[in-house]
Amino acid sequence: MSVADGPFADALGAFTGLEHVVPVGRASLGIAAVLLAFRGQGTLKVAVSAAVCQDVIAAVLLAGASPLLCDVELETGLVPSSEWIRARAAGARAAIVVHLYGNAAETSEVRRIFAAPDCLVLDDAAQALGARSSTGLAGAEGDVGIYSFGPTKHIEVGGGALCFSDAGLAAESRVALASLGVSPTSEVEAAQQRFRSGLNLARETLRAGPQTEIRPFAGLLTGYEAALRVEWRPEWGPLIARALRAFPEALERRRETAEAWGEIALAAGLVPVGMGLSPATRSVCAPWRFACRLPGADWASQHVVGERLRSTGLNVSHWYLPGH
Q1: What number of CA atoms fall less than 13 Å from residue 248's CA on the CB side?
Q2: Contact of 57 with 48, CB cutoff 8 Å
Q3: For 155, how many CA atoms within 13 A lie in the half-sphere containing its CB?
Q4: Strands 144-148 and 120-124
Q5: Which domains does the chain possess?
Q6: Which of 55, 92, 189, 274 qualifies as a cystine partner to 87, CB 3.0-4.6 A?
Q7: Do 173 and 144 contact (CB within 8 A), yes or no?
Q8: Does residue 324 register a pLDDT over 80?
Q9: Helix H segments across 40-184?
């Protein structure tokens, strides 16, 4: 780290309770580095939610590993224990626990299934800064915590971080991170544009034809790894540190907004995906975006609803197709 990263590492370490902080240009690049360090020269299967940002899958591939997709529960968007158990039995030695939309997953349960030292658990709180499960803070219960501070996240500055309690794994991940290198800005932007154009075309095809047609999505991640190789900028550190100090109040406002959206959604026949306090587990959400679903809707009708909402000025996403 540079001298400028000191306050950032101190602030995030205090927030998470994890001593070793490694800044990364993108959280997904950090995921690739940790998996690469853990994989070594062998093969690696990684259990991961099927409803996840494409960057996470691209990170698994960049590390030379294979993703093993796990289904999610409609009510929360989270992977149930039965799917983690299935993935472990199928040979997965690493698990990426994604706290989707800010809903807190029970990472401690995944840790039990993917037990150390034979397995690795990545606690991905990129969408869940400040969320808490029944046993702890999202991002602080695995072998490594994944945090993102890029566009649309709870703190929008840039970059991300890996947080460790194990100094050895932190050091190995730093070495792996350096080996992955960075891409010129032009290559990053070109890779992102290719993916977005291809995804939009594939979704248009899906809306116009059979609802289970997946062939247009083939090859979307070809060459996409360049989009992950972003360099950490030291000037981000102090800005994130300052935002972390003010974050408790900002998080409370997010929760109040999500509660209001929940009332609107229910009145309109939409079903929130998590987004609140779970009486069963006592988990507490840190809403990223307000997530909801419309039971019975196909891709075409969902798109129509989304476009009408966008016309009012709302930012609407239909990003993770399996989760909707």
Answers
A1: 2
A2: yes
A3: 27
A4: parallel
A5: 5-180 (3.40.640.10), 185-227 (no CATH), 248-323 (no CATH)
A6: 92
A7: yes
A8: no
A9: 54-62, 81-89, 107-113, 167-180
